[in-house]
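Budget justification, computational time. The allocation requested in the original proposal was used primarily to generate structure tokens for proteins on the priority list. As evidence of use, we reproduce two of the resulting records. The first is shown immediately below.
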Amino acid sequence: MLELLDSKRRAAFRFPLCAATPMQGFTLIELSIVLVIIGLIVGGILVGQDMIKASEIRATVGQIEKYNSAVNTFRSKYNGIPGDLLQANAAAFGLFQMTVSPALGFGDGNGLLEGGATGATVGMGETLAFWRHLSDANLIDGSLGTGSNGLIVAGTGLPTGDVSVMGQSLPPSKTTPAGYFIVYSVTGINYYQLGPVNQIASADGSYSWGTSGLTPVQAYNMDVKLDDGMPNSGSVRAKGIAAVNANASFNATSASSTCLMTGANATDTADTYNRVTATGGNDTSCSLRFRFN
């Protein structure tokens, strides 16, 4: 008898007689907490993205400042600017020496960066040797102009082959999408330009340009940190992405693929950067030119 009662107790323990508990939904308070958490996560992601973009802008501005400092240091040490340094001085200091007759654009020491001819802006001669000299002098990171297709031929001032891996010849920017810095002179002034260069031709040094430059918002933020924030005045100027020193795209109102907002032309000093993010402000339609200082 006791064994029978014991077995019944064990069975009841294994299969308790209880009513099924109905499923319960979230309360309004619980839903509110979940929504707040989701909002915080999304907000954190957006803030993080903005912080990344801001840090890229600061880093690229820092590059320009670093290059200017490197040029001034080079000038003080070697009595000339990189690229344009007299060939004899380059050889005496153990720097890269072009062996082309030192006509304009091949280490003539006239203070201007020229691509193998008066006022030439192509990647040839001094405009390529500029980065090679700064690399040789350990004033910038990398070894530009020293290897693979980017190797500069002393007798021509041109790269050994068509350069499509641009980091062999030019320094990349810190912004996204990445562009590259080139140098040249116009009307007696030396400039850097940051744009979407994607090839240097070994035949004549001509640049091929891509379609993803800086956004107008990025360009404005760099301009305002280094200069006056206006695209056609001061030491920083807005440029297009079709070629070296090309005029920026423009429109009277904010529009797609428009770098500047203007009613007249792309060089009016009253022009402004197109910062309307919904209609062109985030399009990669700008390049920037920076004057040496």
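The second record produced under the same allocation is shown here.
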Amino acid sequence: MPGRPGRRILTVVTLAYVAACLAGCGTASRAATSGSGTPARPAAAVSSPARPRPPALAVTPSREAVTSWRLVAQVHGRPAVWEARRAGVTLLRFDQRYVRLDLHAGAGEPEGTWRYGADVAPSEIHHVIAAFNGGFKFTTGDVGWMSGGRVAEPLLAGRGSIVTYADGTTAIGPWHVGFPAPGRPVFSVLQNLSLLVDHGAPAANAEGCIQTCWGATVGGVDVVARSALGEASDGMLVWAAGEQLTPLQMARALVAGGAVRAVQLDINPDWVAAYLYVHGGSGPRAVPVVPGQLGIAGQLLAPYGRDFFAAVAR
């Protein structure tokens, strides 16, 4: 029996609707899958901008004399180095969790090729925070020196020693008098005279035996440029220097800065100098630390004849 016209129209419309639906569903399915049939990754959710990471190294030398500790360097946003100036003495305090000391050989002494040579090394150049002079000339007979297991000047028992262990931590004490710590590999040692500070007190001869016990000075004067490095009870390192100091004044400044043990470094204006390094696109820029220091040609970024220390971000 012939079908009714209305039913034929409904059938055609229904088939067209189903075809359109299937076409749409197929499009949606293809959009939701990759060519291999793997579900496509959903769109990432919109989130707030990430907080910028602090710079790896930020050094901001103090522009004015301050008696209280002022932060001058941060490592990955963490406070690492502080500066203070008290009674003619400039002090730097280093947190060894974020800073290590590298003992450098000079171009003239010690002889030979060493891990850290006569200037700040390429491996240190983008991490150096500060650098300062080392100890006496080897010809004085008051120095011991070792780096990387090689001895340039013999290490003698009882001498004040700045010891850096293989893990980069530095400690100060009298060599082979309960020091260094047993079982800890030592990377470098600088010995210079005896301890200027021990058990939190100045050495007994810091006042009455200046020229004989603490080094001959230019012109034979007692008040002269001096430098020293100490260790606090919490492991902080305390460096100190000034242009017009006696050994006792230096020792008292170190004790006031928290040092419980300390070694005097070099003396006399030509050899006492330190720098903080401000980093920028053209590399580090040296800023003198001690007011009135004569300074070192090349500011320890170029080869220097004597040994020195570089304080480097870990």
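A brief technical remark on that second record: The CA atoms of residues 165 and 186 lie 4 Å apart.
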